[in-house]
Amino acid sequence: MTNNKQQTAVEWYIIKRDEIEMKIRLMLICANQYEQELTKADEQAKEMEKNQIMDANEDLSTANGLQYYNQTFGNESNP
Q1: Which residue stretches of the chain are H helix?
Q2: Which of 13, 28, 40, 69 is deepest in the core (most CB within 10 A)?
Q3: pLDDT for the residue 67
Q4: Which pTM value belongs to this model?
């Protein structure tokens, strides 16, 4: 079974942050690189969230908010 639902900006950020945390713990990056990568991930997640909100506003003309969320990101309460 394939899941073709989009990932929310928050979900993406959590995964990205965990990847960056792992790099610093394994000493693959220095503290300076850690800060730079984390800042870049923060900015990218904010941009993703902005785009998701704009997309939702365009699509809400034919669906209510909950319906849009479930179609786009999946219904987390009913796996």
Answers
A1: 9-25, 31-59, 65-73
A2: 13
A3: 76
A4: 0.69
In 3D space, the residue among 38, 39, 46 whose CA is nearest the CA of residue 8 turns out to be 46
Copy the structure tokens of residue 38.
Answer: 């984390």
**Could you give the CA distance from residue 13 to residue 62 in angstroms, rounded to a whole number?**
29
Can you give the pLDDT of all 79 residues of the chain as single tens digits? 345 678 899 999 999 999 999 999 999 999 999 999 999 999 999 999 988 888 777 766 666 777 777 777 776 554 4
d(CA 42, CA 27): 21
The backbone torsions φ and ψ at residue 29, rounded to the nearest 5 degrees and listed phi first, read -135, 155
